Amino acid sequence: MFEIVERQEMAQGTIISNWIKAPKIAAKAKPGQFVILRANETGERIPLTMADTDPAKGLINIIYMVVGKSTALFKTLQVGQGYLDVIGPLGQPTHLEKVGKVICVGGGTGIAVLHPITRGLKQIGNYVYSVIGARSKDLLILEDKMKAASDEMMICTDDGTYGHKGFVTDKLKETLEKDKDIKLAVCIGPVPMMKFCAKVTQEYGVHTLVSLNPIMVDGTGMCGCCRVSVGGKMQFACVDGPEFDGHQVDWDELNLRLRSYTSEEKVSFDQFKAAHAPGCSCSR
Ligand SMILES: Cc1cc2nc3c(=O)[nH]c(=O)nc-3n(C[C@H](O)[C@H](O)[C@H](O)COP(=O)(O)OP(=O)(O)OC[C@H]3O[C@@H](n4cnc5c(N)ncnc54)[C@H](O)[C@@H]3O)c2cc1C
Ligand code: FES
């Protein structure tokens, strides 16, 4: 078992952070890489990016949003309990390079994925602008960590409860307009956010990395489930990615593939919620 040693609920319990004992993974992991976890023998294999690691203590940190059956099951795991398996590190690490000025843009739980990359880019001497956003103030995560990893940080909320009222693309555009020396953008969040960020950066000719989240099964390039089209070529996000050139991604295809099992996922989540409703003694 991979034991949970620290657990925190964020964003009103919709986002969970776990520090997990996984010394071999912690020793090897690099920014941008992910793990695949299973809660129990009948559990689904769920890919989650490592938001942080502590190699000295042999710990990895995952931060996930509760969106369906498996992440709801993960949420029930408490300190002292754990995951049956955690496989990793998987995927290609982010290519961290000193280019001068960079802008890192994160939305929702994408901020957790973005944080180690932002920190890595600053550590090697880049000047880092960051823009983080959420639907409202209560749902914004890792503000302090992102601030520490950035030279300048901007905050956006859709409803205007904190920072700029509007989307992260507004501040991305404003910053690219103001500073023509920015050489790289790293944009991570929901698919529509990444797609529109890439559209903005394309106007300014700024190279853009995005982290794709297609449905994955094995995570080792064997099943083909995570295939995405990038620059007209088929790529497997688990072994070739998950980061790709945002200007080359076929976003419509990714969207379509992500929605392949929506009705089955809803049935499964509804059954889970019914089985775990207060007063129900059954368990699925
Ligand atoms: C490389 C990678 C890294 C990721 N990192 C994070 C992270 O750090 N934090 C985070 O909150 N989420 C992350 N995700 C997304 C996360 O894996 C899904 O939210 C999770 O699998 C949903 O499972 P579920 O059973 O709770 O929900 P479901 O109801 O099964 O699905 C909800 C949505 O999640 C997606 N999904 C479902 N199953 C999978 C699967 N096996 N693989 C990928 N996507 C799936 C589908 O688009 C689906 O519509 C990552 C995905 C990938 C591919
Ligand atoms: S998840 Fe199977 S090939 Fe990528």
Q: Rg, please?
A: 19 Å
Summed over residues and divided by their number, the pLDDT gives a mean of 93
CATH superfamily of the largest domain: Nucleotide-binding domain of ferredoxin-NADP reductase (FNR) module
Helix proportion range: 25-40%
In this structure, how is the largest beta sheet organized? 7 strands, antiparallel
Bound compounds, each kind once, are: flavin-adenine dinucleotide, FE2/S2 (inorganic) cluster
How many beta-strand segments?
16
CATH architecture of the largest domain: 3-Layer(aba) Sandwich
Strand content: 25-35%
CATH topology descriptor of the largest domain:
Rossmann fold
Structural class: alpha/beta
Could you say which overall geometry the principal axes of the C-alpha atoms support?
A: globular
Taken together, the total number of domains comes to 2
The first-level CATH class of the largest domain is given as Alpha Beta
Provide the spatial order of strands within the biggest beta sheet.
6-1-2-5-4-3-7
Individual helix count: 9
Describe it for me?
The protein is built from nine helices and 16 strands. The protein starts with a strand and ends in a 9-residue tail after the last helix. It has a seven-stranded antiparallel β-sheet. It has a seven-stranded mixed β-sheet with strand order 11-10-9-8-12-13-16, with helices on both faces. By secondary structure, the protein is α/β, with parallel strands linked by helices. Helix 2 (69-75) runs parallel beside helix 9 (262-275) and helix 5 runs parallel beside helix 6. The model has no long low-confidence stretch (mean pLDDT 93). FE2/S2 (inorganic) cluster binds at residues 216-219, 221-226, 236, 238. The site of flavin-adenine dinucleotide has 26 residues, from strand 4, strand 5, helix 2, helix 3 and helix 9.
